[in-house]
Write the structure tokens for this entry.
Amino acid sequence: MLLHCAHARYVWNLAVEQHSNWKPGRKAAPTFAGQCRQLTEARAESEWLREGNVTVQQQALKDFAKAKAAIFTSGFGEPTWRKKFVHEGFRVIGTDRVPARRPDGGPLLNAKGKQVMNRRVIVSKLNRRWAQVKIPGCGWVRFRLTRRELPVAKTFRVTLKNGQWHVAFAVMPTPIPAPGTSEVVGVDRGVRITAALSDGRKLNCPGSTLRERARIRKYQRRAARAPKGSPAKAAGHARAAKLKVREVNRRKDWCEKTSTMLARSYDLIRFEKLNIITMTASAKGTVEQPGQNVRQKAGLNRSILAQGWGLLRQRTEHKAPGRVEDVPARYTSLRCSACGWIEKNSRKSQAEFLCVSCGFSCNADENAAVNVAAGQGGASRPVRRARAGGMTPRDQRSSVREPQPARVGISFV
Ligand SMILES: [Zn+2]
């Protein structure tokens, strides 16, 4: 499987190189079909490549083509280099063939009237917890089931992360039906409270415990002090990585459970629109112009990424397709959810919101979540800071009152 990883990485990096060398005016970089032909030639020349499985290598090219086609929509941009020990993985396409079916259940025929066949991964269940899958060149490989049913998939991906092998089957999730109550929920994602809901609930994504963080530091210290290349150094890194995986697993688990809950209990789920990539962009700056608050920004970046904000939105969309909306994030935290007044002074502290116009008081995150549920990101006019040293008279205040949307189905606690 490590050799499969190496082949997939090599082929992917060749594709990256071909496309990164391309400049306007030069002949276009080869497409997927062209690259497959070049792969055949490369396999004829290189014994190392020939030893490997051709579909694993072709699937790496297919992955690259998909990544290239989604550079504007995936959020990851241009495909980049894959590194040894870091990006280890490969995709396998199923070898079993099953007749394709139409949505009404009848056989799917092509233009010539022949039955269309679909590829299917060969898996079999061993017992309640374990199953096995056929991997080319490796035979049956056992894996632990995380679901009751066996996966029905066309392809699967094998990855090696932090010393653990994982297998992930590409299964189309069945959408969760809407409850039909026409209820709307707003989700405000924050650093203190991971997700504040407009119904007043505050959900927190679990991370590492204090004890675990202390143990991670201990092993990192041991690894740092061990001599270069020693077994103690490798063991220290491995033990720290194993503890860090726990945090990642907890976050994923929380995202899955929360997104299922949201899809099940609300007809429409509104998230405030965040640009996580620019929010977490490094504040380091350059040598000539060093950035400000680099340490603080690094800490915030860590906590933003650790909260799994992007994952929650993504998984909710998968489970409730067409029922997820993004609301512009401007002023959702400064706008009063009761009267619509926008003012910086209303936000008393991290947790407290007290409207200076109508006196409505509420938890600040909950207030923002209600604004998100109402689809209100606030006015397009910038809010002016109130003058220092006391309040300005009411008629001179720099706030904007807006029409109130009908708040259907949003309950206050
Ligand atoms: Zn108010």
Remarks:
- The first strand starts at residue 88 and ends at 93.
